[in-house]
Amino acid sequence: MPGENLSRDEARERAALLSVDGYEVSLDVRSAIGEARGEGPRTFRSVTTIRFRCNEPGASSFADLIAPSVTAVSLNGRDLDPSEVFDGSRIVLEDLAADNELVVDAQCAYSRTGEGLHRFVDPEDGEVYLYTQYEPADSRRVFANFEQPNLKAPFRFEVRAPEEWTVWSNGAGERVDGVWRFAETKPISTYITCVVAGPYHYVTDSYERVLEDGTRLEIPLGAMCRKGLAPHFDADDVFLITKQGLDFFHDRFDFPYPFGKYDQAFVPEYNLGAMENPGMVTFREEYIFRGKVTRASYEGRANTILHEMAHMWFGDLVTMEWWDDLWLKESFADFMGAFANVGATRFKDAWITFANRRKAWAYRADQLPSTHPITADIRDLQDAKLNFDGITYAKGASVLKQLVAYVGQDAFLEGSRRYFKRHAYGNTRLGDLLSVLEETSGRDMASWARSWLQTAGVNSLTPQVLLSASGTVDELAVVQEAAESHPELRPHRVAVGLYRRTAEGALERYARAEVDVDGPRTVVTELAGAEAPELVLVNDDDLTYCKTRFDATSLATLREHLGALTDPLARALCWSALWNMTRDALLPARDFIALVLRFAGRESDIGVLQMLHAWAGSALVHYVAPDRREAAGRLLGEGALRELREAEPGGEQQLAWARFFASVASGEGELRLLRGLLEGTEKIDGLEVDQELRWAFLEPLAAHGEADEGVLAAELARDDTASGKRHQVRCLAARPSAAVKAQAWAQVVESDALSNALVEATIAGFAQPSQRELVAPYAEKYFAVIERVWEERSIQIGMDVVRGLFPSLRDSRETLEATDAWLSAHEDAAPALRRLVLEARDDLARALRGQACDEAAGR
Q1: Minimal CA–CA distance to 191: which of 249, 152, 238?
Q2: Which residue in the list 4, 135, 147, 308 is annotated as catalytic?
Q3: 3-state class of 242 per DSSP?
Q4: 696/562 Cα distance (integer angstroms)
Q5: Measured distance CA(671)–CA(658) in Å, rounded
Q6: Interior CA angle at 360 toward 487 and 613, to 5°?
Q7: Tens digits of per-residue pLDDT, 128-176?
Q8: What is the dihedral of CA 448, 451, 453, 456, to 10 degrees?
Q9: Is 330 annotated in the active site?
Q10: CA nearest to 116, candidates 179, 178, 51, 42
């Protein structure tokens, strides 16, 4: 389809026709400061020279550019009329020569949606900050190019910027005669080029290593953030993780970091967690912590730093040909983030976080109607944008963990090394990776790939235990099941653990066997004759990707003794399995909440504890029967407060329980306590109510009508920063008023005045669980506007609106029917839009099944 939404077929045709020798890009961003001129979008000048070859002289093709206007276009010295060759997103190129030079002089628009060249004005001091974000296809908003991953080329950037600014790009740069000029890059894809500019606070360091051939590798390191965040910026820890990661990957990849310097920018209003631009990685600035956070937050940041670093090899050095094979970079980076965290940093329990948090994302995504194979069918750029999902990241990483168990770690890493050397600076497909893994492992990778990479859906593994007359295990089998929609039964390498209580009451493993599960039923012969278990944990040690189920004895044991399970990974796996049972309407939601209230206070892993808090809150909002919500919410609030008071003063468990208590507080006494903690009239020993915690306490107060506009304005005056503004906007939208909801709806749906960050904050505040009746009228409005929003707004804002404003709190059969009616009436709507609505519908249907299960469980 012509226009912004480039198709795979078009990309293939263009790649077969063209090869690119290099880009020279000149940007003038001095217009970023000062008053905007005219009534249109604020723009900057972009001049691009592309040198490229065409293997069919005389043929036609096109370049990509999304810009308000084009001043001039020249092809091989011929001036072209911009009004004739440029349609707003493409530049038609006719009668190409064997060797070509295209020059495009354009006025491109600064972004407020986090796509392209984003412009941010800091409300604290009025300073302007710029950064780019392109994945999958937004570099064309900044300079003319061939926007697809397999047309790699070297890039040379130059940038004119305000005199007091510093500018960074992928290569090393210096300012000469008022112009920032940057070293030419290695051949890279358009979507990972980058420019960051502004009065950023910048800290430097360096990394040195002697390579095996005796040469010395030195990598200049930099880290930056807004000046307003500088007092909170712990750059030393960022550099520590960076150096540990570089050591780890150099030890294992045998391919020196290939992109020169290594800068890391923490930037405002970022849509993603981070982006792997070579030499210039960008992160969301929320990774700079303004208040006290738990160890899990530092572990998460370290994981992201290492994830992006792994991309320097998986994704930047070797890049997928098209977005079908997005997993070739994202699955590997997700796996490597945890792998390196455990192997190189202080976060030795990162596999627990992976099992409990990342896999939960994958399990949910893999049961949606939009689930897809890890190697997906990506028809166009809209498909690509939506496939940055739990399948591509977390399921793919889980499958790689299974692959390591299948072929062995040494064979896996040797395959990676050969892959880098064989395809450096090139593009690959699935078969290129499988071929090297077959070489190094001797395994048949084609059959493994068919089962794990080319089919969708998640299997369930359930133990069956038969005891002998003497009370020992006569037979233990693992039963594998699959959903009707995705019936593939896969080969699994699993560990099966048997657990019993000790004399001291601890629940510990006393027997374990690794086995290849294949087909509907596999007997674990190694465990025959073992003492009768109280708990059987299939997928012990989390070797495979599956939903774990329990036999009746094991489930009964967990109900009574989950807190006695001493191994933290086993405990995390059991919690994950119980949550999956709750989502699958096999365990009543109030039973799950009761387990959290009974055992979460004993949870030693802070990341698992915070995940339990999130799951318990979701169970209350979505899966508890409607007539039981008030009572369940009261129990959850009372239990959270009890744990908060009993937690170690000043510890991270106390902080986690304080945040969770605020999220579920609803009773008069609970809200009074929050208000007292804010005002200083109430104290909890050891709990420091810093600025971030103040905002966490203010949101429930605002949602229950206990904090009005004046209170929130006073808090913003206390925290007059970009972060404070986002918090205030969320709290303002949370207030229980029809007028407030109407205003929030209009700001997000009817206007594009808000930046992406403030759109996100407004949506987050709009739909409060305690305000179901207040937001119910917006269900009908939602279905009336989403197609228009999708057509008129950027894809990022469209995704935020369609996902965030779906009427999930109106969880009734009527909403399900309204969703079905919209889908039936809009079969020709954009496939990506329909996917988002189908996913929301599935979540709603799952919630209704969960409520029915909870209702059937009685009081």
Answers
A1: 152
A2: 308
A3: helix
A4: 30
A5: 13
A6: 145
A7: 999 999 999 999 999 999 999 999 999 999 999 999 999 999 999 999 9
A8: -170
A9: no
A10: 42
